[in-house]
Please model this.
Amino acid sequence: MSKTNAWHLRDIILLTLIAIFFGVIYWVIGPLYNLLTVALTPVGLGPAANDILMGVWVMAGPLAGYVFRKVGAATLGEFLGAVVEMFFGGQWGASTMISGVVQGLGSELGFALTGYKRYDWTSLGLSVVTTTIVTFGWDLFRNGYAAYHIGLLVALFVIRLASTFIFAGVLTRAITNLLDRTHLLSRRSA
Amino acid sequence: MNPTLKFVLAVLIALEISFTSSWTVNVILAVIGLVIILAARPGWKRLLSLIFWPLIPAVALAVAILMQSRSTGNTQFAIVLFTRIYAYVFIGSAATLTTPIYELVMSLEQNAHVPTKFAYGFLGGFNLMPKIVTEVKTIRVAALMRGETLHFWSPQLYFKAIIAALRWSENLAEAMTSHGFVEDAPRTHRVTVRIRSRDWIIAIGSLILLQGLLFGLHLA
Model:
């Protein structure tokens, strides 16, 4: 979209709308998370549900980063999505806002590493990796992952990386490809 | 309490208990949160779902620690994780249930000096929430009529929603501009939101008390 870094009213509204849309999605997959968690808890693998679905929860960041191509877009998009989810009555309460910022900064880092110049698989791929590492680091503390034995930690990390790759990588790329074909985003910057 | 300070306080508390492991503090925070929630008189359904749904991640995390941790006998940490989830949820809901989003945004604009274009742009977008929920349903039904089912992993679902959002954002921004909204222009306020000294005392007092509790219980 625009090459400038200034946010205009319509950008802010669009970002909010995208965030709300993702807030709705996050909220909708809540039951799926609960189902998976209940199924995995008896074998002590309940937290894996979090890692399996992580990719869906971090999609708003890379998508906003790609659509707006501005500094802070990924963080703001992911954060607003989290705020919306919290007001919907998500089951994580106040920590949702922190998670939103952590996830947003994670995906932002990927775009920042390319200097906000590349919007292709390089930046998206980097974003997938940074998101996985940053959110996993946060879960080491928040969800007590740090206490698990090393085998489980590696397994959870790999699951999370795969999930983030599928949703925040492949799916986001598919969406942005569809958007690119409409030329709506390039027309907006004119 | 001033909305900005309330949310800052809730986030700071959540952040602090993420890095500390005191189940007593978690329980105290959860109880305080629950009292504030009850004082806001939510419906029975809301209240029960607030108590029930966090049970799932809370039990999952606690069981995982008991079964999967490196050292055995980590019951203490399992209880910490279990109570931590409830502290998060009750403190968070104590803030969200007592603050209409409009008041929060007004406070963020006037007290936290968030640029007006962000405050009103966000508010404008937020008011379209029911339309977005309807749009998602419309998109899925429209696809069903062609014999396609759109799941949360279907790019088409997101694509169509973003196209709708693009159109709405243009329209809404134009509507706001034609009603006299100018980006970055100074504004006057019909309702002014202030941070009273009482708000500061509650916020800083709570934080000091929290440090005291965490530190005191650690030493004990």
